[in-house]
């Protein structure tokens, strides 16, 4: 009936036109754009804000480990024992009172006079004996940066004693030192003083009744029982109390004309071998020897090494060991677990028994035995690598085995096997990519585990990584364990770095797990 009606209308093909001729007719909501596996993983990783922040922190720590040794004027082997265990000191932040190299300390009146006396002696380099305490407080070489008002108390003898609290620069506190130099070295120091305007050489001190310790170059003023005194007209010693107007009476060696003596011949017969005993202001002597002032961003460690450089070396060592162990364990564990999980049966049983035997060996015992028997031949770092690798791949192998048991009987695997795919292709092309998220996560989480174990072994002294050229975070923590209450920066700096590495690598591993999970793959909007 419809055909008859259509024919009666006498309509031809030319009577019809296409409304959307040449256009693709589709709903844009269904227009999809394929996304590669790596691009999709990267996009999903970036959505995890915690993992991104952790990755940024890890990158910053790695950059610190490699950049700081390049820009530092020191090298990792530079050590100054006189500046050991010193507080952080920064040239940029010092003027505003941050990282100024100072510590707060309580002083008795005698102790305060001794500390202030270093600044007075540094200003009075000509030995004139006219510089008061007040005049020295503005000097660059005055270690006392601030002094509180005195607190008076009565002692057991009903005598009034005064105590003070102050902020002291621990670098300037070193004060003066006796040094033995050759005649040529003495002339070079004199030339340096003229060129730079810095005073390095100071008058020698007499070894007499007014000097309580002749080996201490800071005892330059007359004292009696550690109390500063002046000699009156009758030749008697009069005790002097601390105060801004206090002028200390020097005890310098002088020649017949009363001029201070700056050097003393101690041996040698000619210009090449002559040795002089000199007294130097160590701060300026440090500048003379090294060409720069002692600024240490994180302070110095218990031996006098720059703690910032030691931290950089510890980070590099810990990351190097951790990354190498992770790569080796990933390779061995993936191969072992894939074969074990794919073939199953007696193959799985045999390989699983081997894993159980190795897994029953305590790691700390293995590490100790390797250090005892192999460290002397191959070095402590390589020996530590062997200890980690011996049993470290078992966790990765177990996870890969579990994933292969989960996926090997899936429909897509059965379809590939039906189509004649070889075992090798099924393992690495079809099953392994689906296990990649878990494997990568486990490998990433191996890194903080290795760092923690290495730090623990170093802290306990099982491995020795504290030489001049190499150190570890655990060694730094061990060195500061008995003195950190007095020098907290020695413990705080490596502890913060170690904590950040542990936390950030765990967050980073969780982000990788989600990013490489094939079940979460999607398409680009």
Task: Give the arrangement of secondary structure elements.
Blueprint (H helix, E strand, L loop, with lengths): L1 H7 L28 H11 L1 H23 L30 E7 H15 L9 H4 L7 E4 L3 E4 L5 E10 L6 E7 H14 L4 E2 L20 E2 L2 E5 L5 E3 L23 E5 L7 E7 H9 L16 H37 L1 H15 L3 H11 L1 H4 L1 H13 L1 H14 L3 H8 L4 H38 L12 H8 L8 H27 L10
Antiparallel strand pairs: 1-4, 2-4, 3-4, 5-11, 6-11, 7-8, 8-9, 10-11
Helix pairs in contact: 2-17, 3-8, 3-17, 8-9, 8-12, 8-13, 8-15, 10-12, 13-15, 14-15, 15-16, 15-17, 16-17
Commentary on this structure:
With 525 residues, the chain is of the alpha+beta class. Strands 1, 2, 3 and 4 form a four-stranded antiparallel sheet that branches. A hairpin with a 5-residue loop joins strand 8 and strand 9. It is elongated. It starts with a helix and ends in a 10-residue tail after the last helix. The model has no long low-confidence stretch (mean pLDDT 83).
Supply database-style keywords.
MetI-like fold; 49% helix; elongated; 11 strands; 525 residues
Structure in a nutshell:
The protein is an alpha+beta fold and 525 residues long.
Percent of residues in beta strands? 5-15%
Task: Kindly provide the radius of gyration, computed on alpha-carbon positions and rounded to a whole number of angstroms.
Answer: 37 Å
Q: Give start-end ranges of low-pLDDT stretches.
A: none
Question: What name is given to the CATH topology of the largest domain?
Answer: MetI-like fold
- Please identify, by name, the CATH architecture of the largest domain: Orthogonal Bundle
Order of helices and strands: HHHEHHEEEEHEEEEEEHHHHHHHHHHH
Considering DSSP H and I runs of 4 or more, what fraction of the residues is helical?
40-55%
Largest sheet: 4 strands, antiparallel
Broad CATH class of the largest domain: Mainly Alpha
The total tally of domains equals: 2
Write down how many β-strands occur, each being a DSSP E stretch of 2 or more residues: 11
Termini Cα gap = 49 Å
Whole-number mean pLDDT: 83
Note the overall shape: elongated
Class derived from helix and strand content: alpha+beta
């Amino acid at each position: 009936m419809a055909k008859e009606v259509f024919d009666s209308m006498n309509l031809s093909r030319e009577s019809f036109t296409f409304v959307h001729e040449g256009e693709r007719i589709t709903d844009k909501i269904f227009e999809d754009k394929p996304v590669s596996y790596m691009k999709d993983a990267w996009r999903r990783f970036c959505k995890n804000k915690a993992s991104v922040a952790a990755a940024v922190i890890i990158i910053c720590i790695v950059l610190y480990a490699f950049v700081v040794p390049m820009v530092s004027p020191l090298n990792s082997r530079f050590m100054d024992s006189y500046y050991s265990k010193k507080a952080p000191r920064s040239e940029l932040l010092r003027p505003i009172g941050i990282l100024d190299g100072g510590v707060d300390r309580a002083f008795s009146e005698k102790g305060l006079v001794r500390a202030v006396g270093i600044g007075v002696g540094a200003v009075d380099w000509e030995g004139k004996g006219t510089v008061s305490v007040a005049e020295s407080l503005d000097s660059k070489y005055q270690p006392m940066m601030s002094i509180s008002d005195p607190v008076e108390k009565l002692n057991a003898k009903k005598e009034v004693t005064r105590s003070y609290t102050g902020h002291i620069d621990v670098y300037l506190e070193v004060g003066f030192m006796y040094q033995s130099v050759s005649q040529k070295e003495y002339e070079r120091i004199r030339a340096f003083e003229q060129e730079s305007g810095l005073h390095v050489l100071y008058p020698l001190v007499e070894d007499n009744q007014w000097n309580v310790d002749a080996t201490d170059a800071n005892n330059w003023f007359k004292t009696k029982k550690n109390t500063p005194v002046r000699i009156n007209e009758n030749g008697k010693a009069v005790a002097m109390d601390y105060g801004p107007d206090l002028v200390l009476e020097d005890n310098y060696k002088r020649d017949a004309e009363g001029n201070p003596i700056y050097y003393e011949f101690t041996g040698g017969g000619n210009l090449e071998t002559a040795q002089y005993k000199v007294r130097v202001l160590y701060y300026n002597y440090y500048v003379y020897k090294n060409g720069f002032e002692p600024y240490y961003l994180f302070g110095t460690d218990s031996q006098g090494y720059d703690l910032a450089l030691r931290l950089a070396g510890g980070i590099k060592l810990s990351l190097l060991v951790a990354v190498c162990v992770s790569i080796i364990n990933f390779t061995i564990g993936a191969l072992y677990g894939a074969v074990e999980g794919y073939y199953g049966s007696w193959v799985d049983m045999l390989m699983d028994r081997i894993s159980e035997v190795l897994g029953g060996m305590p790691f700390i015992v293995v590490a100790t035995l390797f250090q005892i028997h192999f460290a002397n031949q191959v070095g402590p770092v390589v020996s530590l690598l062997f200890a980690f690798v011996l049993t470290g791949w078992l966790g990765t192998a177990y996870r890969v085995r579990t994933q292969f048991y989960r996926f090997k009987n899936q429909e897509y695997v059965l379809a590939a096997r039906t189509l004649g795919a070889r075992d090798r292709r099924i393992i690495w092309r079809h099953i392994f990519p689906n296990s990649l998220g878990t494997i990568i996560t486990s490998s990433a989480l191996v890194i903080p585990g290795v760092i923690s174990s290495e730090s623990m072994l170093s802290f306990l002294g099982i491995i020795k990584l504290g030489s001049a050229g190499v150190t570890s975070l655990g060694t730094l923590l061990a060195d500061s364990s008995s003195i950190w209450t007095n020098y907290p920066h020695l413990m705080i700096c490596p502890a913060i770095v170690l904590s950040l590495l542990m936390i950030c690598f765990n967050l980073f591993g969780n982000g990788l797990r989600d990013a490489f999970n094939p079940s979460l793959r999607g398409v680009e909007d």
